[in-house]
Specification:
Elements (H helix, E strand, L loop, with lengths): L1 H8 L8 H17 L6 E4 L6 E11 L5 E11 L2 E10 L6
Antiparallel strand pairs: 1-2, 2-3, 3-4
Organism: Rickettsia sp. GDM18
Protein name: 17 kDa protein
């Protein structure tokens, strides 16, 4: 939940409804855990037509030994595309 909270709660999340956020969060977790680097994992809200995708990129270990992954989050809300870039690191509890 926290890994994309900053992205979805910030500028890129403006205009997203609760369902958009839920779909984006679930898709992001799945993409970062299982998708090959450079592949797009898409979500789509059938109620409002909004959609987006997550593109996981480089996997690395940070200075404290956590596994991390760079990613790009793209959303299309009301026909307008927005992109954000971030890093997500696995927590000690595996989340």
């Amino acid at each position: 939940g926290a890994l994309l909270g900053a992205v979805l709660g910030g500028q890129i999340g403006a205009g997203m409804d609760e369902q958009d956020r839920r779909l984006a969060e679930l898709t992001s977790q799945r993409a970062l855990e299982t998708a090959p680097s450079g592949s797009n994992v898409e979500w789509r809200n059938p109620d409002n037509g909004n959609y987006g995708y997550v593109t996981p990129n480089r996997t690395y270990r940070n200075s404290t030994g956590q596994y991390c992954r760079e990613y790009t989050q793209t959303v299309v809300i009301g026909g307008k595309q927005q992109k954000a870039y971030g890093n997500a690191c696995r927590q000690p509890d595996g989340q």
